[in-house]
Amino acid sequence: MAEISSLRIDPRSGFCSSNSTFYSKRTPFPLPSNRSLDITTFISSYPHHGKTAFIDATTGRHLSFPELWRQVDSVSACLSDLGIRKGNVVLIIAPNSIFFPIICLSVMHLGAIITTSNPINTAREIAFQMADSKPVLVFTTGQVVPKLARSSLPIVLLDDEQVTAEATTQVRIVGTIDEMIKKDPTDRIQVRDRVYQDDAASLLYSSGTTGASKGVISTHRNLMALMQFFPYLTFPEDGEQTYICTVPMFHIYGFGAFAIGKLTTGSKVVILSKFDMNELLSAIDKYRVTCLPLVPPILLKLVKEADRIRKQYNLSSLQSIVCGGAPLSKDLISRFLDKFPTVEIRQGYALTESTGFGASVHRAEECRKYGSVGLLSPNLEAKIVDPETGTALNVNQRGELWLRAPSVMKGYLNNAEATAATMDSEGWLKTGDVCYIDDDGYLYVVDRLKEIIKYKGFQVPPAELEALLLSHPQISDAAVVPFPDEEAGQCPMAYVVRKSGSNISETEIMDFVGKQVAAYKRIRKVTFVTSIPKNPSGKILRRVLMELAISRI
Asked: In what residue span(s) does the AMP-binding enzyme C-terminal domain sit (predicted)?
């Protein structure tokens, strides 16, 4: 990274005209100098005054900070007994649970690598990830065990759900997490190799919306950069914070921020095993949650059901909502604030490849920058690059966002070609997102580079049309994708989920949008569906919809 003190940087925008680079306006923080240090030891060294680390919203089980670290020691020792060593990959396929952080911290403490998978994945999808990552041990639930029938790997169960006799004969179950956490680590010898900051710590898989799913290698140092950011977000005047984890812990959002991240601040995290709107609202009410992280579809549902929600649940403790996964429209933000005027909306932007780093909104005054995902994270550099010419652009100019920071991944597992296409020789990560940074240094995400619709040479951003569609009172959800057209090249096509009881027509939708956009942006085709396919972070799976559209030609 450049020596910032010698550069002439515009204090307002953070832009340096001499190298066309934007620099974070946030106060930088130093990374630990000790080369031999693992992320678990690093997190456990943080001083704090918190009492409860995690609460299971379903069972009510509480886990204090001392209990957490004792159980991490116990599980680490058990893993060592099972032969887990530095560099081994350990897979966890499970919904959110109070055990998720214990397992992740224990694995990484040994220098082994934690990889995660969505428990609703099919046996084929799980088999693909296992073939790619080559784990030596699996933590999972009884419900997932039948999907592992063809695997000979040892399995540790996370629940007491009955596994069928047939499934038991096809897999090798070596114990349960309850047995592990009850072991006394003090009278056992733990074999542990020296772990360095540059060693791989986690292997999370990217969403694969623009290609095959790829394993993202993040190092202990990458994770330390993210961990040091969370205390930076903590403000004494906000009081003790209680977060509720609705986002999946197998994704960078849930893994980085809530499975391990909030441990550096002493905050309390309430864990939901799966998303259910009523269970979520009940937990906010019961545990007096102050901060709700979510993705745009859930925010939209809160807005549309606000009257019912406020009658049934006491949400007075809620201070803020943190939204990531996709940009929010100004209209949706305004509608939310109208329904919940005392709750701040703090948007953010990050990638698995940047280990959860990117941009974020912190304080009330920053929330007023409607549509922005915030200021660049500390220690981060950015460029806005013309995707056609490769030229670095200036303030308020749109192009592909490139990032460089201590949190940027080591690379993709077993995929040198994809790594080379995503990272250049100077360490710049090409995000594939079309963005711009304004005069005040705020980042705006316009769209995905590969998702831009080209109508007769004009560029049409799907997100803009989706925001309009979602503002219609009879539309519950929507997605816009390109539809092949012989004359125009591509036409905007909308997949629409009608609100219950609505009979809005294709013509009415096209007229509604057509009145508010330039002629080349008009929607030319509408298909009604019952739901919009999305990944765990809330991003629309446009590729799935595009393939569906083409199949019907």
From this structure: 464-539
